[in-house]
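Input sequence (489 aa), recorded before submission:
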Amino acid sequence: MSFVSKYTTLLFFVALACLYALTYRGNIDVIDEAMMMGVTSQVAQAQTIQINAIYPALLPWGAPADDPSGPIYSKYAPGQSLLALPLFALGNLIPVHTLKTLNGQPFVPLAPFFVALLLNLLATLLTALAIFRIVPLWGYSRRTAALTCILYGATTLAWPYAKTFYSEPTTACALVWMVYFAIRCHQGRQRHEANAIRDGLLAGGALGLAILLRTTSVIFIPLLILYLLPDRSAMSATFPGIGIGGLLTVAYNYVRFGSLAESGYEPGFGRAPWEAWLGFLISPSRSLFLFNPVLLLAIPGAWWLAKRARRDVLLIAALILAQVGIYGAWWAWDGGQSLGPRFLIPAIPLAALLVAPVIERPRWRPILIALAVVGFAVQVLSNLANPNDVFYETVNRQGLSLSDVNWQFSASIPANLWTAYTRHDIDSLILRYLPPHDPVLKAVLFLILGGALVAAMLWLAGRFSEEGDRENERGAVAVTAPLEVEPGD
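Predicted structure, token format:
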């Protein structure tokens, strides 16, 4: 990659970072985020994973302990809390000693809290970077890779979830980097390169991190191993990373529950998945395609990509379907008071990869542009309102049930986003305090600023030199199978 290309790439990701910074929330809204942030604070300040010190702040959210005088632990996996530690420590360097309150109770130091909340923003940027590096491995141009990043970063739920402290965005980052290193490992094996073992180690490390973030990621272990077979050395190289992630997880289980196998989630699985699977498709509040319409093009994209990278497509499709399958059996498949299909957030960058072939087909360009524009508008609307305000307007104010929100359009999340926004405030720390204060004008300002940043990214994507358009990155195999192009494409 030339110096000009590197400079353009840097500016491209700076623009994406500015887009996410524009909607930085500076707050947490649910007990999931609070418990994980609480563990981060306790490890950093008291060198303990017990959350007794922040427990009173969690009580109004319904987090009773069997014995409040004994050790109290978070029920969530440790990965998110551990990843936030460097950011929390960085925040401690800021000479501000104000405490962040939660539910009227002292919670954690304010400055480290604000900095630690940048974790998912950084993770989503790294996810986009992985997409940027994977697409050229299949022989597509860097321009196509950049456009795929824009589709992922600005037209899907990756954007509104980048401002949360949920573990799904970091899990998505770990999974997509696992795919990147697995593909490099497989291509390196074909060329008998020694660094294939290194890539296998990194793929295993990424999967181990995903397990630390969400214990259900263990379902991806056989998929990675099957992908790397029959190369036993590459397959074996994944074991250290997977093993470290697994050992840390079971050790955490033992400390919390006195059992290596108990993660705290087992009783929640086992429901019939039919409602969830239907909901992931057509629910007005939980449909993957309603909130991420551009992912509809992953279906034809997978067909075309399979003609040049069948094994890779099978791996990606299996990773997506595994998530649909396991979370369909979870009692709260809808993700509770969250935006869209929260548990499928790690599947979104994988599906976005499959859209890359469509970008290079001129005949499909009008459909691609239309779906991208709709997706961008959906994310702008989703970033305006806090999901908690949406559920307040439906579940609390109107007395509706979560099932009503999931299945009735009038009670759905999209139908109530604007109402929640106008009755409360914009879900952006920066825009909240900037004029104008009229909600319509503020929404227009947000649309203009967000649109300008996306336009800048589109311009930068077009600046990648033709000279390097078809180059694979160093260490990748040149794809010999030509892309089959339909007449007129």
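Checked by second reader. The longest helix spans residues 298-328.
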